[in-house]
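Sequence, please.
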């Protein structure tokens, strides 16, 4: 390999694109990412820029980085594609510069009377954002935004009270998409992305670059070696923790699943079950604090509630979800008579103690992040402090291991830059899609459609909270079929959550309900994108994998109803003792339901026992004390009966 090729490879690795096809694009991406980072750090530290200008830089650099990343992936044979992306990159820079230079005039002189150039800039900015989000996230979200714009223009032609509105003049409509109103692409969602989400994506990028993924997988292996479920428990632990790093269900399945799914199959689990375990574990990673797949920050933006209250409320449901999943894989291993403790499938690799000694600074930075968040420090500032701490500790560890040599210094600097660029790439990608969603949300709001749909839901439910909850849950699952979790949550939260609140549901409980069902669309047929990826890796049937995934994710479909009818499970209302009681009920009920579905407690149980156990498990989740007490008594009796029979079978002589 020549010296120039070696230099190119090192340069690309630092920029986070080892497979780049354009060195020029990689270099510009590296520069854009570092400038974007500098602007964000400066803003969080000094608030030197007006809010609108900061949002403009945030979105502009995000789009530039996105197009440069697409150029990196385009081969020399795709000449027209490259030329188009270069042109769009240059255009974005010009649009960003125009908005920055004209900011004062836009906000003080032309805020209600945009000029011709303002209209052109608004159209072009919308076009670039739609094109980029289409290439990055698929064309569903841009298509919905375009439909929203068309609805804003021609809503006066729509039939019925719900869909009809007076129409919005073209100039005013374009103002809602970006300038001069600084809504839509440059609205409150982009402000949330710039001030908070970007910093957490940066933290995730730095965690990856400093070895967090290897440590998480090693932690999973250590737990798995001590369990009968073995590789299945590795998938549950590693994928759940990966959710605090990647923020993407599909990315979790693709990364950890490539390792865990073949291990599960080799161990003896069927391909459909192995793919489902990985899909559900990765989906649950989005429910796990402190990051929650960005949902915590989205809920903050929609409700105005504090981040701390959302994170604390999410802990108990997430623990129930994973307790059920761990019990499920353990029960399946028992049913199949598998025991990883007697298998060599997880042998090899360093011990957890060795891995922990090498990666102690990762745990320290995460602990500091959680402590800062719980202390009431703004989420964006907390993430920035955690990033700086992690980078500083990683540099210290790297230099110490390398005895402060020149090579150690180069390695440390490379890890710092790689982590920052990796985080900037991820943050930029999220910023673009959130901005496009902001356009759709803005238009659904200003046309009155969201409010009218919310009232229609209330009318359809005839005041019944249970009926309304079914309607809202179905809406989440339907919207989530073709959209990322964040988009599905945003859209349904706009009209579903207010309808729930109107019936007396606490605001946080309503939004957590919507968020859970938006997440579970990733494992719900007929699309079930997480199950699809898991099935492809497992070389298994998609439908078999997706139905197994629905079963393994069952608490995610049941617990949200407790948010509405027993909000104590979220820590709302009656104190810690009430929450612990609700959590205990949920754990017992979901465990009993698991046994009923598997057909096994201490031994195989009959069909009648399975049906009885399933009914009593659901009864224990019902919001009536008398039904709950009877259900609990029956569950205890069935478990005791199974235990007595299993003990008797062990005592009886073998014929």
């Amino acid at each position: 390999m020549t010296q120039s090729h070696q230099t190119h490879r090192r340069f690309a690795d630092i920029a986070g694109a080892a497979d780049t096809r354009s060195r020029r694009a990689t270099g510009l991406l590296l520069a854009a990412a570092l400038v974007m980072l500098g602007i964000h750090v400066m803003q969080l530290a000094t608030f030197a820029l007006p809010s609108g200008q900061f949002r403009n830089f945030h979105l502009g650099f995000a789009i530039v980085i996105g197009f440069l990343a697409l150029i990196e992936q385009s081969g020399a044979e795709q000449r027209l594609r490259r030329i188009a992306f270069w042109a769009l990159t240059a255009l974005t820079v010009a649009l960003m510069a125009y908005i920055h230079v004209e900011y004062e005039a836009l906000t003080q002189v032309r805020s209600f009377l945009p000029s011709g150039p303002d209209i052109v800039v608004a159209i072009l900015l919308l076009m670039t954002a739609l094109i980029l989000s289409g290439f990055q996230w698929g064309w569903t979200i841009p298509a919905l935004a375009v439909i929203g714009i068309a609805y804003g223009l021609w809503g006066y032609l729509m039939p019925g009270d719900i869909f009809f509105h007076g129409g919005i003049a073209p100039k005013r409509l374009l103002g809602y998409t970006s300038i001069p109103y600084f809504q839509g692409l440059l609205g409150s969602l982009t402000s949330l992305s710039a001030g908070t989400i970007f910093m957490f994506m940066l933290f995730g990028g730095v965690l990856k670059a400093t070895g967090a993924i290897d440590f998480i997988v090693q932690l999973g292996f250590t737990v798995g070696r001590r369990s009968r479920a073995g590789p299945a428990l590795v998938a549950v632990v590693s994928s759940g923790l990966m959710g605090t790093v990647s923020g993407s269900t599909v990315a979790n399945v693709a990364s950890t699943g490539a390792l865990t799914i073949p291990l599960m199959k080799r161990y003896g689990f069927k391909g459909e079950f192995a793919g489902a375990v990985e899909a559900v574990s990765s989906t649950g990673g989005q429910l796990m604090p402190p990051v929650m797949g960005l949902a915590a920050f989205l809920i903050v933006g929609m409700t105005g509630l504090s981040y701390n209250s959302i994170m604390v409320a999410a802990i108990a449901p997430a623990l129930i979800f994973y307790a059920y999943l761990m019990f499920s894989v353990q029960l399946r291993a028992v049913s199949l008579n598998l025991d990883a403790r007697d298998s060599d499938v997880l042998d090899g690799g360093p011990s957890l103690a060795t891995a922990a000694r090498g990666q102690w600074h990762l745990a320290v930075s995460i602990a500091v992040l959680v402590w800062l968040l719980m202390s009431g420090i703004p989420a964006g500032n907390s993430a920035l402090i955690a990033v700086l701490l992690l980078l500083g500790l990683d540099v210290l560890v790297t230099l110490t291991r390398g005895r402060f040599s020149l090579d150690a210094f180069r390695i440390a600097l490379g890890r710092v830059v790689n982590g920052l660029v990796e985080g900037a790439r991820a943050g930029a990608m999220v910023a673009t899609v959130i901005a496009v969603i902001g356009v759709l949300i803005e238009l659904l709001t200003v046309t009155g459609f969201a409010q009218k749909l919310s009232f229609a839901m209330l009318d359809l439910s005839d005041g019944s909270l249970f009926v309304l909850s079914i309607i809202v849950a179905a809406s989440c699952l339907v919207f989530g079929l073709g959209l990322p979790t964040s988009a599905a949550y945003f859209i349904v939260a706009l009209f579903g959550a207010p309808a729930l609140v109107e019936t007396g549901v606490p605001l946080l409980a309503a939004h957590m309900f919507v968020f859970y069902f938006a997440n579970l669309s990733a494992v719900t047929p007929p699309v079930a994108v997480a199950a699809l990826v898991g099935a492809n890796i497992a070389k298994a049937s998609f439908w078999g994998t997706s139905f197994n995934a629905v079963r393994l994710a069952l608490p995610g479909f049941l617990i949200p109803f407790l948010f509405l009818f027993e909000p104590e499970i979220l820590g709302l209302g009656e104190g810690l003792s009430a929450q612990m009681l609700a959590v205990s009920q949920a754990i017992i009920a979901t465990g009993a339901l698991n046994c009923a579905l598997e057909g096994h407690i201490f031994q195989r149980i009959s069909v009648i026992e399975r049906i009885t156990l399933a009914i009593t498990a659901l009864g224990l989740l019902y919001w009536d004390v008398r039904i709950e007490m009877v259900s609990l008594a029956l569950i205890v009796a069935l478990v005791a009966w199974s235990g007595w029979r299993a003990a008797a079978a062990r005592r009886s002589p073998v014929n």
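The radius of gyration is 26 Å.
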